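#structure-requests
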Amino acid sequence: MGQITSLFARKMVAAAADVVDARAALESVGLDVDTPWNPKEMISSDAYYAMIERMADEMDITDLPVKVGASMRCDDYGALGLAWKAAPNLMGSFARVERYARLWTSVVSYELRTVPEGILYIIHRDAPRRLGVRLSNETTLIATVSLARQVCPVPFSPLRAFVQHPPPRTTTHHEAYFGCAVEFSAQHDALLFSPASIEQPNTLGDEGISKFLVSHLDADLSALKDEGPLVTQVKDAIAQSLSEGAPKMADIARQLGLSVRSFHRRLSDHGVSFQTLTEDTRRELAEGLLRDQAYSLAEVAFLTGFSEQSSFTRAFKRWVGLTPANYRKHRPEV
């Protein structure tokens, strides 16, 4: 299921609040502008990408990833941010992101890779390169440098930055912030660091606090992995009901032997909503059916709970940035 921390959406909207309708933007991803920020509250990644794309229709977003990434603070990330600061050096900080990133996203993973030129910090996001994904990747790279500069005792910049997609109309903002050359249309979304720069002791590195925070993160990660059975059961029940239209929460709760109140509470404890799981299930089922040429587009629409093919087409384009026909054309058959 595609989930990210609501922190990213709130930061994105805050950076553009003087141009976009902040309340409407946050409501589009299921957030209330008046409630406190909670990095543990998760939202649909597809809804987040769509929100960014709507913002792009209202403003020049060329330097928005730079503004948002630079605004990220270690303390925004809760225990993970504290663990970043308490690590002995930046190598330790990056290693913690590599291990614990699942606590704030299910759609991105991180990799530290030793190469002849130094250490590559690679962002893996397996998703079609729609505009929202591209801007999100740029933001993540900028945020990484921002967080590193907050704990490094000396001026910090990567040796080189790499971005998979083509460059925006100007790269001046990106290069100025990174303090190095930025290679677009690259093989990876990544940052290249010199070993010396990431072996500098962090200003707030503390072994005792570090051990405590890591044990806390391990517990959180273990609890997250235990959520799988419930989420799987819910998504299976939703998938089986879709041919009769979009299922109601009360009906799925009844199938699982739960009251609506208990069902809602358990989903909330896991940081997900019934609406998000329904959207994710429809998208995943649609992607699978579209890879099989035996199903017509009208049949895929029906099997994913849409009464009209046009409604399915609009929803699918919002999910992945492509129409069903274009997605089928560019994806291999099963």
